[in-house]
Amino acid sequence: MMYAPNNPATRQFAFDNSYARELEGFYVSCKAAQVARPALVKLNYQLAEELGLDAAALDSEEGARIFAGNEIPLGAQPLAQAYAGHQFGGFSPQLGDGRALLLGEVIDRKGQRRDIQLKGSGSTPFSRNGDGRAALGPVLREYLIGEAMHALGIPTTRALAAVTTGELIHRETPLPGAVLTRIAASHIRVGTFQLFAARGEQEKVRRLADYVIERHYPELKGHANLYLALLHSVCDRQAALVASWMHVGFIHGVMNTDNMTISGETIDYGPCAFMDQYDPATVFSSIDTHGRYAYANQPKIAQWNLARLAETLLPLIDADSNRAIARATEVIHAFPEQYERHWLQGMRAKLGLLSENEADLNLATGFIAAMVKQKVDYTLAFRYLADAVLGDEDKIRALFADASAYDLWSEHWRARLAREEVTPEGRAQAMRRINPAFIARNYRVEQALSAAVERGDYAPFETLLKILAHPFDEQPEFAAFAEPALEGQEGYRTFCGT
Question: Is 258 a catalytic residue?
């Protein structure tokens, strides 16, 4: 990897690398591996412009070399971040970026600081005998799902570019290699705090906390108990994030503490998937054999992860350990209430409710309960409620194996709607702006990835990406993409991609 002053694309990035500058000892400087024949598969023009980059200049062979890691943009300081983490409940004291390099940070057109990271760029000191490479399929999956989540309004890392390397990587079978360029508010995780707390390096925990407050929570400065306020704010963002996952039937699949960002963005789209038929026990990940990260467990796991963050902050919260534990425990115990508030707020919108009523929680949970064991498509059920508002209940009733479950609930729902003075047309329009017609259906994702990996055909990937960019629009020419698979997805499994 080398600087290339004759490549104008390397001068695109106005880096301001605060992590490298302020947190020495929290990372290892590294180089990306050189690849044989980098080729640009996809460049996110809209995101490039948002970052203040010249997309046309980057959509080139020169840009491909940058996104593959063969050339360093001017001002970049490539590094692998250090962190630890609980993986499926077991603590790993040393993880870190094993196949990723943080190139640096830029300030986007809105004045927000954004990380630019290469994923799949080769081994680092944290690779743990891995090759640090990524296969094309997982790279395209992360590109698709991240952009789909963004279009749904859910905080997420995003993909700036995907390149192929012209090399094969060896997993169960040889696969085409690829590198993803990922954009994030930051890549600081609960596991970042855990690493230094486990080492007893409390001053580093303080430095990290101060950096996080300055970067992500500046409104907290001047608070009487700064680090307790930080814990509360991180909890609130995670409550809102997980609630938004639940609203669209998203299952992360691997909610380890090293996959939970302090910024409140969704990160690391490995064995993730969207639920088709509603079942709270849904698990897609091939490695989640006991359902730890099942759909319904996600709020509880978020709270568990946040308790691990709280443990790292105890000495900062109060010098008296008993008082520190009591104060942190109070914050963690408040998480279910925070989550319920965010979840119910979103559910009111999904159900077409414009005001608040004490009975709304029962109404929302009642609709969910009516779907259990009914083979109801979760996404379409909410989408068709807008049609029901306009008097057409045939579509939603047809989703239920026994429509009487819906009919009984619908009586209560209609009585609640009648209390609000709004036209059916206005209510239905508002509901369609919050309930997507299109999600990243698992079988459609697999079709797109198979075409790209096996045949070099990126047309299905491009089509799906185009559809998912507008999930709330009807898009009648793509109506088939709103439908679940004709055959059941009961045996569908996802894999982490490493």
Answer: yes
- The CA-based diameter of the chain, rounded to the nearest angstrom, is 70
- Nearest partner of 132 among 194, 91, 82, 179, judged by Cα: 179
Answer whether residue 490 shows pLDDT above 70: no
| Cα 174 → chain centroid | 28
Pair of tokens at residue 66:
């940058």
d(CA 321, CA 444): 52
Tens digits of residue pLDDT in 223-251? 999 999 999 999 999 999 999 999 999 99
pLDDT digits (tens, 9 = 90+) for 437-469: 999 999 999 999 999 999 999 999 999 999 999
Tokens of 95: 């993880």
182 strand-pairing partners: 117, 159
pLDDT given for residue 289 in this prediction: 85
**Is 391:373 a contact under the CB 8 Å cutoff?**
no
Q: Determine contact, residues 291/305, Cβ cutoff 8 Å.
A: no
Whether the predicted pLDDT of 5 surpasses 90: no
User: Which candidate in 258, 268, 288, 377 is catalytic?
Assistant: 258
Of residues 179, 342, 156, the one with CA closest to residue 252: 156
Residue 422 CB neighbour total at 10 angstroms: 15
**Per-residue pLDDT tens digits for 36-64:** 999 999 999 999 999 999 999 999 999 99
Q: What is the pLDDT of residues 111-164, one digit of tens each?
A: 999 999 999 999 999 988 888 999 999 999 999 999 999 999 999 999 999 999
**CA neighbor of 199 nearest in space, from 348, 60, 69, 312:** 312
What distance, in Å, lies between the first and last C-alpha atoms of the chain?
23
As given in the structure block, the two tokens for residue 84 are 């630890």
Residue 489: pLDDT above 60?
no
Q: What's the distance, CA 404 to chain centroid?
A: 36
Residue 187 pLDDT exceeds 80: yes
Band of the pLDDT at 1, cuts 50, 70, 90? very low
- Please give the mean pLDDT across all residues of the chain: 94
